[in-house]
Amino acid sequence: MSIVLFNSLGRKLQNFEPIKLGQVNMYCCGPTVYNFAHLGNLRTYLFEDVLRRTLEMNGYKVNHVMNITDVGHLTGDNLGDANTGEDKMEKGSKREGKTAWEIAEMYTKAFFEDFKLLNIEMPTVTPKATDHIAEQIEMVEKLMSEDFAYETADGIYFDVSKWSEYGKLSGQKLEDKKNGARIGINDDKKNPQDFALWKFTPEGETRQMEWDGPGNRKGFPGWHIECSAMSMKYLGKHFDIHCGGVDHIPVHHENEIAQSEAANHQPYVNVWMHGEFMMVDGKRMGKSEGNAFLVKDLIQKGYDPLAFRYLNLGTHYRIQLNFTWEALDAAQTALSRLKIQVAKLQGEGSTDGNYFNKFKACLNNDLNSAEALSVVWEVLKSNIADENKLATVKDMDKVLGLNLTAPLNVKLDVSDEVKNLLDLRAMARTEKNFAESDRLRDQIAALGYGVKDGANGQELTKL
């Protein structure tokens, strides 16, 4: 069964063919660890997780590399210019009164805690930019030696006019980019779109993170160069898939392609895949917008983090998803009902091939997770034996990652006895056994809690 993926390079659906039989080399742009990752950031990693699991379902061995950006990502990126502003690590250091290295360690740990809560598989390798300075310097020097880069007062820049294919990812020609570019940011640059490969530490200043680099000047790498250097170190100069958010297309990934292909004189990546934005009230979710919800916010409000995973599975990764608490309520209710149905199944059975192939076909069609979810419900409503339903759903959940055989992880400040009674009551209502539901409600009331049934399931209140 073939896999069809949407390739941002060329902007079309195409059959996926790996460079090496049976193996996929995949690079995903990782976090800049100066702050917590918000739900919009994490949506991209969830889509990449489903992609990896889908490839593995199809029998591929996936070498999954994801970088940790702990230096060089400047605040100007928020305004569309990744070459200006303050290093985000230095900014985080000033904000919290810790060293940049401590900031990086703290937020890297928090990031992977979110991965665990959302059941995202750990990448094969998670290289840090600061551990690969030598590789980045080597690449900058190579670009300089081949006249693709030049030195200015504040750093070393890639000359986009020297790369004839610049703009092939975004589909915007260089002359069009020039017409819409801002000027006056750096008068030493030959072209407004020229991007920093290495930034010099300003005269009279000392940075926490700086190295002896090209041009015999202390400084630090530009944001884009790290991904090229580290991806090629672990995956080779030409590999299968590169992923990120749609905001990476016009600048970060465009620049990656230019510097990588200029340095190596060969194609860089075959398939580029990008996840769409998460929106809140029509605006992109982001720290600068002030609407950046975190996984810990979900937990504090009593949600299972996997309800957020379910919410994402219900919308195609290339479609914007509008986040609302009402939508998350519905996702948690659906996940709860799904787990209750699965909990009723017993026995050791076999996976139903017809249903599983239908499920697989959905995901092989550019990761159509919403249709794949509907097949899971179809299995549970079918007349196949319970033990075969259970085996089939378990195999499907290896890709969906919803931990369907585990209890719902909801934060309730109540005893295990009350939680158990709530689960039993939810099951009774699913089976339309309303007499049993009422009896369990009375038991819960005797323990000091009232239960109200609404569109979003059971609501517990203290009596």
Description:
This protein has 463 residues and is α/β, with parallel strands linked by helices. It contains 15 helices and 16 strands. The chain folds into three domains: 4-278, Rossmann fold, CATH 3.40.50.620; 325-400, Four Helix Bundle (Hemerythrin (Met), subunit A), CATH 1.20.120; 416-462. The chain has helices spanning 39-57, 88-96, 100-117, 133-145, 174-179, 223-235, 249-264, 295-300, 305-313, 325-343, 353-364, 369-381, 386-400, 416-430, 434-446; strands at 4-7, 12-15, 23-28, 61-66, 149-151, 155-158, 195-200, 211-212, 218-221, 239-245, 269-275, 278-280, 283-284, 321-322, 449-454, 457-462. A five-stranded antiparallel sheet has the order 5-6-7-9-8. Strand 1 and strand 2 (12-15) form a beta hairpin. The protein is globular. The model is unreliable at 179-184 (pLDDT under 50).
Note the topology.
Elements: E1 4-7, E2 12-15, E3 23-28, H1 39-57, E4 61-66, H2 88-96, H3 100-117, H4 133-145, E5 149-151, E6 155-158, H5 174-179, E7 195-200, E8 211-212, E9 218-221, H6 223-235, E10 239-245, H7 249-264, E11 269-275, E12 278-280, E13 283-284, H8 295-300, H9 305-313, E14 321-322, H10 325-343, H11 353-364, H12 369-381, H13 386-400, H14 416-430, H15 434-446, E15 449-454, E16 457-462
Parallel strand pairs: 3-4, 3-10, 10-11, 12-14
Antiparallel strand pairs: 1-2, 5-6, 6-7, 7-9, 8-9, 12-13, 15-16
Helix pairs in contact: 2-3, 4-6, 6-7, 9-10, 11-12, 12-13, 14-15
